[in-house]
Amino acid sequence: MSTATAATGTATANLNPYKTVEEHPEPIETEVKGVVPQWLTGSMIRVGPGKFEIGECKYKHLFDGLAMLHRFNMSGGKVMYQSRFLRSRAYVEGLANNRIMYTEFGTSEYPDPCQNIFARFFARFLPPKMTDNDNINLWTFGDETYACTETNFIHHIYPETLGTGERVNISDHVPVHGAVAHNHTDPDGTSYGMGSTYYGRPTYKVIKVPPVVAASEESCALKRATIVGSLVGQYRVFPSYFHSFGMSENYFIFIEQPLLLNPFKLMTAKLRGVSFVDAIEWYPEVKTKFRLINRQTQQEVLTTYTADAFFVFHHINSYEDDGNLIIDVVGYNDPSIINRLDTQNNSSLSAIDQSSSPQARRYVVPIKSDSSELIEQRYPGALALLKNDGTIHCSPKILAETVLELPRINYEKCNGKQYKYVYGISQEGQNSYRSNLCKLDVESGETHMWQEDDVQAGEPIFVPTPDAVHEDDGVVLSSVIDYKPGHPDFLLILDGKTFTEVARAEIPCSVRLPVGIHGVYMK
């Protein structure tokens, strides 16, 4: 492992990431240290929680704070910064009424203090309103960009101003009640997402959005959406929670994990004054399943593939190799990370319990191999065993012992194909407040680290050079919050190959970055 170490922190750093920040809609010039490559012309746009309280009401989870968009725009070696709150109904109505109006992932809506006691009592028997606080990720469909969370509401946004456009109800266009926060895109511009239905037997559906033909302010890519595959849930009534899915050349990959949404608890959440997170349940004795949909036939592969129970937020990449499907994910032994993202835990993503730390895992699923190849895989460390009942049980290879989350690859070149590198955030030590960046070679297990004391680095985004030949020819962008007193937050630019610092663009100390979750780079 090689390490690039930056400045040393101080014992007086304020290490609380759950702080409300102010928006700055007008572009602010940053102070660049180092040299921003001249070819780097575009914007890194991220979304995440930027406001953690309304009046006396406080949000209780990282996934709950009101959505803020922020943008670093790079051109001619200069970098400009701006930020703006998403004008969702959760934001507008919340500020107008001075209280939390919508139940979020970990926070229940607050009752109206102006109602009499009887109205407030009977209001608790109504189901919670579905939030439109789209603070998790950004979807792009051609020239259209949308902020999203994991509900049925997304918002059209304008990248150059970070303005909020039309609110779109996904359920008006495809029969799903919610959609995954991560989509996939083919080279021809076709996008794929995944949604689920909750009432009756759960189903999981792949959503196809064809390439945009002619974009306009009034257009909505989802008007062209269709369903191109579906899976019936294995758990009657209880849907499995999922945050992402995989896609290879010929398959969609859905991991049906035993983290289940209890609809009865969800329906009574308002009555009990609890939120979505209180309605999900973990069943460690139940196997995780890999569910595959053939992209050509749109039918499920009938073979049952299982693994010991594990939890996953993020797929890294999936590809086919010699009759096998390689599925790389960031896996946890259990979903305790969800509770550790409670706002009472000031360490956020930086202090991770080593008993269930996120690791890059490789599962090898035989899709065309004969039975002799199932017993002894040619992938060292990974195993797939044919059982007497005809199911295939898979055990993973741990690609590196290094903690890794928020994984990104050279998507344009490598998604759905054999690849070599993944970038992510990492840390050192169980109670460390240092959020590092990591480059992992998935073939050798070698890691390269960038680290600096008392900072929280955001999800790294790889941007290839215009004339890239090798997979890691490019730069890695990350927005970094610096908790050291008097130190500015900044955009970090690393060399994709050497993983050393090329430049940083510091914003004024009077301006603070929000805790971004996911984002995109737009040329």
Q: What is the end-to-end distance? A: 32 Å
Overall, the morphology is globular
Discrete helix count? 7
Low-confidence stretches: 7-12, 115-126, 347-351
Oligomer: single chain
User: What integer value in Å does the Rg equal?
Assistant: 22 Å
Question: How is the main sheet built?
Answer: 6 strands, antiparallel
Q: Share of helix among residues?
A: under 10%
The whole-number mean of residue pLDDT values reads 88
DSSP strand (E) fraction? 35-45%
Please count the beta strands (DSSP E, at least 2 residues each).
39
Structural class: mainly beta
Structure at a glance:
It is built from 7 helices and 39 strands.
Fold and architecture overview:
The protein has 523 residues and is mostly beta strands. The chain is 7% helix and 41% strand. The strands form 9 sheets. Strands 3, 34, 35, 36, 37 and 38 form a 6-stranded antiparallel sheet that branches. The longest helix has 9 residues, at 89-97. It is globular, with a radius of gyration of 22 Å.
How is the topology of this model organized?
Layout: E1 2-5, E2 24-29, E3 31-34, E4 42-51, E5 53-54, E6 57-58, E7 66-75, E8 78-85, H1 89-97, H2 117-123, E9 137-141, E10 144-148, E11 153-158, E12 163-169, E13 178-179, E14 184-185, E15 191-197, E16 203-209, E17 226-232, E18 246-247, E19 251-256, E20 259-261, H3 263-267, H4 269-272, E21 280-282, E22 288-294, E23 305-307, E24 311-321, E25 324-332, H5 337-340, E26 359-366, H6 371-375, E27 383-386, E28 392-395, E29 397-398, E30 405-408, H7 411-414, E31 421-427, E32 435-441, E33 447-451, E34 455-457, E35 461-464, E36 474-482, E37 490-495, E38 501-506, E39 518-522
Parallel strand pairs: 1-33, 23-28
Antiparallel strand pairs: 2-8, 3-38, 4-7, 4-39, 5-6, 7-8, 9-10, 10-11, 11-12, 13-15, 14-15, 15-16, 16-17, 18-19, 19-22, 20-21, 22-23, 24-25, 25-26, 26-29, 27-28, 30-31, 31-32, 32-33, 34-36, 35-36, 36-37, 37-38
